[in-house]
Amino acid sequence: MNINIKRVLIVFVILITMSVLWTVYQMSPPEGTAERVFVIRENSNLNTISKHLKDKEFIKSSFLFSVYATVTGKQSKIVRGEHTIKQGKGYNDILQDLSTLENETEAIEVIVSEGLTVLEIADRLNKLGIVDRKQFLHAAKSWDTLTEKQQEKLGVNKEVKKSNTKFAVEGLLFPDTYYFEKNMKDDEVIHQMTERLLHETSKITIKTDQTPYEMLTLASIIEKEALLNEEKRKIAGVFENRLKEGKKLQSCSTVQYLLERPKATLRRKDLKIKSPYNTYLNKGLPPGPISNPDLASIKAAANPEKHDYYYFVAKQDGTWSHFFSKTYKEHRKYTQLSGNY
């Protein structure tokens, strides 16, 4: 056989193999186990439905899904209305779900705001009849509630598991809008919310020497300290500077986390509460997160602003902004100006 023909055949085989592998990859479902509401309107065509499925991250390729639905003849069986679809399903299963409304359960919209604690989320889910509060909190205390893969991605090691965390999943329940059913399993709810966290943070590069779990711990403090997104990286920089210098973080938010009910103003005796979470008494980060931070706080913790500030205090002027200081003397001046001690 002519050498040139052999080369052409080899190239052809390689191209075919690569095309097949690409197609198989594109047709495989994206990672995730979240269950979400998917609405198909009366005027939606297959291309619109396919694009919407891709945007919602149920599929990777809208083009291949459209081709599959057309070739298999399942395009004509799609029913307009509100569906509940779980991530991780293949084309055939998705089309099966979209072909009927008979098996649909009533999905409850749950808005988890940024900065909520596990206790506050448990109260909200319990009130809506999604979980039992007591059982949910019991599951939230155990590292075994998370999958091994989730623990690995978060950098949860033996040392973390031995630390005295109040709740193992504090900081891992990503603030977002969810669609849950009544009387769900506690671990399923936690898995979905943690999976949403891992997905939303998958492209974030940590530019400090912290593990993902330590980064989330710092982010949870930033979430409680910063009311303005534009200040979050600067506040993160203050905490990073203090960590590097071996200074105590002295975050009031970590003390508030220890109280049954947050106070408008902490008293000096509150700062003396003995707990590994009290950053007025202990150096370094607390054992774990103190809230469930949003994406802006997480990004700030992963990439703190570089500066020479070591202190900050709220201005108390209605702007929600802070004074930042390089020295304690300067900090005291701003503290007195803000009406704090």
UniProtKB/TrEMBL annotation:
It is a single-pass membrane protein. The keyword Transmembrane applies. Its EC number is 4.2.2.29. It is found in: Cell membrane. Keywords: Cell membrane, Cell wall biogenesis/degradation, Lyase, Membrane, Transmembrane, Transmembrane helix. Pfam families: YceG (PF02618). One of its GO terms (biological process) is cell wall organization. One of its GO terms (molecular function) is lytic endotransglycosylase activity. GO terms for cellular component: plasma membrane. It catalyses: a peptidoglycan chain = a peptidoglycan chain with N-acetyl-1,6-anhydromuramyl-[peptide] at the reducing end + a peptidoglycan chain with N-acetylglucosamine at the non-reducing end. Belongs to the transglycosylase MltG family. Functions as a peptidoglycan terminase that cleaves nascent peptidoglycan strands endolytically to terminate their elongation. This is Endolytic murein transglycosylase. The gene is mltG.
